[in-house]
Amino acid sequence: MLSRPLTLPLAIVLGLALVVTLFPVFWIVMTAIKPPTDWNATPAIWIPEQPTLVNFRTLFDPDAIREYGVGGVSQPATASVLGSIFASVIATFFSILIGLFSAIGLSRYSTMTKATPLVILSGRMFPPAAIAVPFVIIFSVTNVIDTYSGLIAIYVAVTLPFSTWMLKSFIDDLPREIEEAAMLDGRSRLMAHLTVTIPLVRGGLFATTMFIFILNWSEFMFALVLSYTNVTTIPVQLAKYVTATAGTLYGVQAALAVLAMLPLVVGGFMIQSHLARGMTFGAVKR
After folding, report:
1. C-alpha gyration radius of the chain
2. What are phi and psi of 34, to 5 degrees?
3. What is the pLDDT averaged over residues 135-140?
4. How confident is residue 286, by pLDDT bands cut at 50, 70 and 90?
5. Considering Cα of 153, then 158, then 161, then 167, what sign does the dihedral take?
6. For residue 230, how far is the Cα from the chain centroid?
7. How far apart are CA 33 and CA 254, in angstroms?
8. Are 163 and 208 in contact (CB under 8 A)?
9. How far apart (Å, rounded) are the C-alpha atoms in residues 224 and 144?
């Protein structure tokens, strides 16, 4: 495809889109390094004159913020960070593993009807608040509420339709003849998929894994209603930063948000080539 020169109107539109997209990130980062006196200042302080890391220290030392006369937080964020890492990584692994083989089965061995996409995606058509209460009852009866096994199970159930459908679109774009050639060389169906199909769709696999991890990492509703004291995650911890003396601790919330963004930014940067290929894989139909 021929490249077109960047015109002035297009450059202005792209610049505005970039500003709108990055402004929340800029504001969160600036709030994270503001002292408590600047959080609610009027007029708003865009860039603090005396940046501080006290908000980040408060995440792991609840009394650190007392040096500014603000009451300390009730608990450190260590458990929520470790909980988010554990639940998101394990849930993403199982969602991708089950979704990958489901996608291969649907793409290669199934005669789907028009209702198949509706059935697969039906679990995502209900708002989380509508299905949270039944899950609370079920998990209470089976004694898995407030456990990581229960939280991981619901994460896998919620993200599985996305992983299955996204991976299926990548496998659909792969010619069957490549797998059939591997079988003619003596490989079984399973080995043909493991050694040919999966390596050839690794771009889509990376992109889907990143997308599913983001969904699990940022999930709030189920983590809130299915956890009490034993299980906690970063989104739930963000809602707890409120004190009687200072109200909402915006700086500490922003510091934890910055910390939560780091693995996604680093991971996205490391696999950016696979992401770009994965996001465009299947975009052109032959």
Report:
1. 23
2. -85, 145
3. 90
4. very low
5. negative
6. 22
7. 9
8. yes
9. 14
